[in-house]
Amino acid sequence: MKKVVIIEDEAIAAQKLTSLLGEVSPEAIVEQVLQSVEDTVEWFATHPFPDLVFMDIHLADGNAFRIFDKITFPCPIVFTTAYDQYALQAFKVNSIDYLLKPIGKEDLQKALDKWATLSEGKSVTSENQKLDTLIEMFNHQSRHYPSYFLIPIKDKLVPLATNEIACFYIEDKVSRAVTFSGKTVVMGKPLDVIAEQVDPALFFRVNRQFVVAHKAIKDITVWFGGKLRLTLCVGVSDEVTISKSRVPEFKEWYMK
Fold this sequence. Notes:
Shape: globular
CATH topology of the largest domain: Rossmann fold
Order of helices and strands: EHEHEEEEHEHHEEEEEHEEEEEH
Helix content: 25-40%
Strand content: 25-35%
């Protein structure tokens, strides 16, 4: 039996990974699912390290690489993320693979095969192995981001260009998009899925309710408690705020 910890803030993604692990490696037992940087640091302060960690990069309270400021992981890590721009950072820690969402069974199997090789006694911190890992990361098939979404309207699917969208948001459990012309449309898919599909260089998940386009941000106000409030160039029903913990990540994204 091999113990596994999943660090993932999206419940659906965690459930899918757990299910996929059960199919590919029934002997792997998911010991815990953690949703944030804070939860992870606190949990590992009182629990032993597992045999393997699956770690998303964008967590509920910020970038997962902040975890490594507090914890040194002796066990291997597989990063599971919708974003490919963090491969170099992943190379610097005990990563054995970097899987882009949606994760396929074949990719997961390859990651577990690497894990099995390491379990036979090879060092996870070997520079040669890390170099091989880095090469694989950059040889991974390029991530494709959709230029259009198909919007279900009655009995039709109407194309909507991604570059026409100012923001996505969820209201009454329904995800919607607002275009730069001010039109609001129902997307027909969960916001979590949309956030994984759009180009992270152009869109940012500011909170659980909003994903905003870079060029839709009109101005930024420093708010109480260290939060930020965004004013968009289109009207939305709720205030668009960024929690204090996510401000550094947002600033880094915005200034790129």
